Amino acid sequence: MYSRHDQAWLSDAGWAAALEGAPPAHAPALEQWRRHDWPLIVTRRTPDAPAGAVCLGLAPPPEAGRKLRIALQVDAQSVARVEHALTLRAAASAAPSRWAAPLAALLADAGSITLRAYGSLALQAVTSLTYLTDSSDLDLLFTPASLHELDAGMQLLQGHAHHLPLDGEIVFPGGAAVAWKEWRDAAAAGADARVLVKDAGSVRLATRASLRELLA
User: Fold this and answer.
1) What is the structure's pLDDT at 64?
2) What are the sequence ranges of the domains in the chain?
3) Dihedral sign for Cα atoms in the order 181, 136, 46, 35
4) What does the alpha-carbon distance between residue 195 and residue 101 come to, in Å, rounded to a whole number?
5) Active-site annotation holds for 137
6) How confident is the model at residue 21, as a pLDDT?
7) Catalytic one among 6, 37, 134, 139?
8) What are residue 196's phi and psi, to 5 degrees?
9) What is the mean pLDDT of each run of 10 residues along the chain (216 residues)?
10) Which one of 13, 83, 105, 106 is least enclosed by Cβ atoms within 10 Å?
11) What distance in Å separates the CA atoms of residue 152 and residue 114, rounded to the nearest whole number?
12) What residues contact 147, with CB distance under 8 A and at least 6 apart?
């Protein structure tokens, strides 16, 4: 089972197939990723993806403000291994110096709550290429195991958002993901407030109450 934001490494045969069908503009980035054995990122499954295919993405560093996004569909047998997104602790060494102290404070306060990084910080940590700019957000995944952990994690993120440009998602059981800021903003409207949910194959609306029930 693949989850959005997972890291996926291709086999030699997988890379050969990806390069064979790549547009010329995408080939240099794909070849660079193949040469360094860097992972691709699991994305939401598209409606046109055939059975047995895995949808992946590759995002080279921005050039002159332009962001290239490469979408791939590979056979599941072409995936050599899959790992969850990097933990924030593992990615923190790639953060800019201005984030060092507030990041250390966030990790210290997190305790047993595991935060994972995706987006620019994670890509910079994995590749050592330059992704982060002065306007970059810090994209985090938070996967609570209980209602208590959900509430504690939200309190943690809200408290540290004053010192870091935090963004990202809460991931509920089954892979249902909600932007944590949307979850926060919808709280005032009550349990029946609906939020946008992204999962492995769809985008939909769901009530806060129905998502909290997944943790009950």
Assistant:
1) 58
2) 7-83, 88-213
3) negative
4) 33
5) yes
6) 81
7) 139
8) -80, 125
9) 93 94 91 97 92 94 81 94 97 96 97 96 97 94 97 97 97 96 92 92 94 95
10) 83
11) 12
12) 212, 215, 216
Structure tokens at 29: 């980035």
Question: What does 28-61 look like in DSSP terms, one character per residue?
Answer: HHHHHHHHHTPPEEE-PPPTTPPTTEEEEEE-PP
**Residue 201 corresponds to which amino acid?**
G
Angle between helices 97-110 and 147-160 (to 10 degrees): 150
pLDDT digits (tens, 9 = 90+) for 113-143: 999 999 999 999 999 999 999 999 999 999 9
Strands (E), the chain: 7-10, 40-42, 53-58, 70-75, 79-83, 115-118, 138-142, 166-171, 177-179, 194-198, 203-207
Kindly state the percentage of the chain with pLDDT values over 90: 87
Respond yes or no: is residue 12 known to be catalytic: no
Active-site annotation holder among 137, 167, 185, 199:
137
Alpha carbons within 13 angstroms on the beta-carbon side of residue 64 total 0
Give the pair of three-digit tokens for residue 92.
């923190």
Residue for token pair 């994995």: 126
CA angle (72 as vertex; 133, 44 as ends), nearest 5: 75
Beta-carbon contacts of residue 43 (< 8 Å; ≥ 6 apart)? 4, 55, 56, 57, 71
The pLDDT of residue 191 is 80
